[in-house]
Amino acid sequence: MLSNHLQNGIESDNLLWSRVPESDDTSTDDITLLNSHRDGDGGVNSLDYEVIENYAYREEQAHRGKLYVGYYVAVKWFFSLLIGIGTGLAAVFINLSVENFAGWKFALTFAIIQKSYFAGFIVYLLINLVLVFSSAYIITQFAPAAAGSGIPEIKGYLNGIDIPGTLLFRTLIGKIFGSIGSVGGGLALGKEGPLVHTGACIASLLGQGGSTKYHLNSRWPQLFKSDRDRRDLVTCGCAAGVAAAFRAPVGGVLFALEEVTSWWRSQLMWRVFFTSAIVAVVVRTAMGWCKSGICGHFGGGGFIIWDVSDGQDDYYFKELLPMAVIGVIGGLLGALFNQLTLYMTSWRRNSLHKKGNRVKIIEACIISCITSAISFGLPLLRKCSPCPESVPDSGIECPRPPGMYGNYVNFFCKTDNEYNDLATIFFNTQDDAIRNLFSAKTMREFSAQSLLTFLAMFYTLAVVTFGTAVPAGQFVPGIMIGSTYGRLVGMFVVRFYKKLNIEEGTYALLGAASFLGGSMRMTVSLCVIMVEITNNLKLLPLIMLVLLISKAVGDAFNEGLYEVQARLKGIPLLESRPKYHMRQMIAKEACQSQKVISLPRVIRVADVASILGSNKHNGFPVIDHTRSGETLVIGLVLRSHLLVLLQSKVDFQHSPLPCDPSARNIRHSFSEFAKPVSSKGLCIEDIHLTSDDLEMYIDLAPFLNPSPYVVPEDMSLTKVYNLFRQLGLRHLFVVPRPSRVIGLITRKDLLIEENGESSAVELQQSTSRSVQ
After folding, report:
1. What value does the mean pLDDT of the chain take?
2. Which pLDDT score, from 0 to 100, does residue 219 have?
3. Which of 8, 194, 271, 645 has its CA 20 to 30 A from that of 554?
4. Same domain flag for 185 and 326
5. Where are its TM segments located (predicted)?
6. Which residues neighbour 70 within 8 Å (Cβ) at sequence distance 6 or greater?
């Protein structure tokens, strides 16, 4: 029955397909059509998000009943649970390690500087150097794909681009331990972006059953073989990474929706939300378990969450102007940051990093030494200030030793009743420094000179550090930069309006949001994340205001940080909106640069091997001839499917005539055609064919996609772009205008009940639209 259905489907497609022109005006290459980037070149390939409805797929679907469908859905939810647990535990391990390394480092340094500041500086520098060296060594020697934040690569994957090595097991290990070394070593970067990449790696590895190379695999979880199912799992992992980094489950869902994914549906949203909720439960459970002190320095303030609920209760209308100014500053500094990092990263890729891994390690170590010297040396040049009068029930203690949770750090002060405001934010962990900048009831804790000094130095360090061969996120450095100039503006507002209920920490929070909006160009997800990590819903309108202004200002100069980095790395992203000049182009004009390589339905094995070896195309139209001699396109066959057929050899035949599908048994399951995730898969060079094999034939009809998407040659390129991106396609046929129409589908034709009958609305409104 299925064989007859396939044969009937091919015959129907023969009626629908237009004649193939003899000229080379059309192309089947997707990246050439839209991005002027040939699919298969440059180290990246497109993913097959489209369901290939060949005979193997239809046969497999026919044997699946409702029980299997229920099992399939249940396994998806179970995998969402596992992704949440795995990402939560990875985040707990990273934060526990970072907090303990930083705590031990500052405790040891503070104990030594009681006797000698020079000896303390040497110890401080050496500890940071060892941590950064270990991170750079792991990345360069073990997991090169783990360098950077990983968000541009994951964004490219969800956009339909497969970058080798992005989601491998060694990338996951390098991301985890590399983040511990780079963040614990005091570099001007964060661990939030790497956590997103970590969650995506965990999701991908669970979906493919582990790692075959390291013998950590199981056949049971290998249920999700298609790129479409893996895409859903990776989306869950991205949301889980943000939820774990900020303890912001709703922000994680919105981040996945707004920033990384290109394709969304309601069923996926439920699973993403469930995964983020599981992460929040795991993280909060771990932090509650660590409150007893069994986790060392981790527990009380380890994760990034800054409670400002006890800060400013209300705001005045006259404060909106300085808040808008903060938004403008954030847009300008964010756009400048994107441009400077683009120049630095481009210079590294084109000159410095071409000299080898040793240069990458030396560069990271030099930046570590400079960062340690600045964070230790600059506070020594700053004069200490007397501690303010203690406020009852404020919970603020002055002074405190470096590296301890709280404000007013005592560093190089003559008396015990003094503190160093520059050391409070410089000679401290980034999380504790942000808490100090966000803190309420600490009026005039920082001087304008100290804030300006810190802003200039940390901004420079963040630009220089971004792009080194270590895992690097930009969320926390962006919050540090923004909160610094935000607090500076808040100081002037307090002095100008002379209102006692205006908190400088409120403006620091708005500054942090403005810089992230001006650099990363996120709005909704970032707004929710900032509310969740600060626990102050009253500031929501103000955060929305500065985000809108900063994004508008930043968009006037350049693209967002992740888009800039993706373009620099050669990741051909399809953005949500087509370019303006595409309105003046048609589909035929976009694909004139390449020649169509078509295959006959029955083809010699030698010809298949020759074609695959002579080009890099990943999709080939398959043509057949009618009895009258007409050339018709009957479908599309993928390069990966041809390679599987050549390797297995079980479908070779001696006859050059097509076989009757009803009399032929398909020896392949649909899962055999799936490519391993984040790897190159089979190559034509890996397949060995004898001289007898080369003289055999293959009938491609059972293995092709008989119903690929088609557009007429004169369709607007804007419409082609939207269709291509929204459906997640890899190939799109461009054909001449069809000569006739056999039917017309409307909305009510798709309102079909499960029993195959039309709905009541359809029965009442049925009309005949058949074209005679």
Report:
1. 83
2. 63
3. 194
4. no
5. 68-96, 116-139, 233-256, 268-287, 320-341, 451-469, 475-497, 509-533
6. none
Measured distance CA(767)–CA(283) in Å, rounded: 57
Whichever domain contains 675, its CATH number is 3.10.580.10
Among 569, 591, 624, the domain-final residue is 569
Predicted TM-score (pTM) of this structure: 0.87
68-72, 519-523, 623-627, range with greatest mean pLDDT: 519-523
d(CA 319, CA 627): 81
Range of the domain at 538: 317-569
Q: What is the mean pLDDT of residues 75-79?
A: 92
Model confidence pLDDT, tens digit, residues 455-505:
999 999 999 999 999 999 999 999 999 999 999 999 999 888 876 678 888
User: Backbone phi, then psi, for 160, in 5-degree steps?
Assistant: 110, 15
| Residue with token string 């300006």 | 452
- Residues 258, 324 within the same domain: no
Phi-psi region of 40 (alpha: psi -120 to 50; beta: other; left: phi over 0): left
Question: How far is Cα 378 from Cα 427, in angstroms, rounded to an integer?
Answer: 9
Pick from 446, 175, 205, 435: nearest CA to 300: 435
17 pLDDT band, cuts 50/70/90, is very low
pLDDT surpasses 80 at 35: no
Q: Establish if 497 belongs to a structural domain.
A: yes
- Tokens matching residue 247: 């303890």
Same-domain check for residues 337 and 224: no
User: Comparing C-alpha atoms, which of 536, 477, 547, 538 is closest to residue 510?
Assistant: 547
Residues 268 and 83: their CA atoms lie apart, in Å, by 14
Q: What is the number of helices (H) and of strands (E) in the chain?
A: 27, 13
Q: Are strands 733-735 and 710-712 parallel, antiparallel or unpaired?
A: parallel
CA angle 244, 248, 252 (to 5 degrees): 80
pLDDT of residue 423: 85
Q: Cβ(479)–Cβ(245) under 8 Å?
A: no
Q: Which of 122, 194, 97, 109 is nearest to 428 (CA)?
A: 109
- Are residues 520 and 592 located together in one domain of the fold? no
Q: What is the dihedral of CA 221, 222, 226, 232, to 10 degrees?
A: 20
Please indicate, yes or no, whether residues 110 and 196 belong to a single structural domain of this protein: yes
Instruction: Decide: 436 and 424 in contact? Cβ < 8 Å.
Output: yes
Model confidence pLDDT, tens digit, residues 335-372: 999 999 999 999 998 888 888 899 999 999 999 999 99
Of residues 624 and 297, the one with the higher pLDDT is 624
Residue 28 pLDDT exceeds 70: no
Closest CA to 514 of 486, 494, 495: 486
Residue 638: what are its φ and ψ, rounded to 5°? -90, 155
Residue 576: count of CB within 10 angstroms of its CB: 9
Mean pLDDT for 157-171 is 89
pLDDT for 695 beyond 60 = yes
Q: Say if 340 falls within a structural domain.
A: yes
Alpha-carbon span 174 to 752, nearest angstrom:
50
For residues 39 and 589, give the distance between their C-alpha atoms in angstroms, rounded to a whole number. 18
